[in-house]
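request received
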Amino acid sequence: DAGVTQSPTHLIKTRGQQVTLRCSPKSGHDTVSWYQQALGQGPQFIFQYYEEEERQRGNFPDRFSGHQFPNYSSELNVNALLLGDSALYLCASSLASAPYGYTFGSGTRLTVV
Amino acid sequence: GENVEQHPSTLSVQEGDSAVIKCTYSDSASNYFPWYKQELGKGPQLIIDIRSNVGEKKDQRIAVTLNKTAKHFSLHITETQPEDSAVYFCAASIGSGTYKYIFGTGTRLKVLA
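response:
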């Protein structure tokens, strides 16, 4: 049973560019949450998607947007990249009917130069 | 705003000894407290969790205690083994009935053989 799959694993972008990160949830899960983890810090909640809609959002600017597809997979988009956006981006999936306890993916390491 | 403080930031113990990591939270509405283990290059893995209506929970060598009055919760690992070496994060749900979490800043645990 595959867990949460994220792609790509690493990427390097230039300031001002746009990036799209992808996530496939664990089989049977229908809810996807995205977190940003800066080096040496704990993950910070970006937003959560359920039934193809953004259900909750953390304290992140509108440059961060997302999407959930009918197959429950999700994308995180970041526009106008800043150096400070360099981080590990984690996707976590869960089941709306049993929401406690995420399953995290291994993340996408984004470096902005 | 909501905050979770975690101590210590680093912890070294001899193999077979116990390790204790402590967290405090600020949001009195928090009702779910998971603990995650993160190994190098991997995403966080849920190791144990506790809900606000329970004071203690144990799973083999791992236990978590919760003091809602003091807004404290702790992770206890007994009979530590080298494979317990990792970064551990505590987290608290933001508000009640939300499934987004605020994480502590992490504890790097080293178990010395």
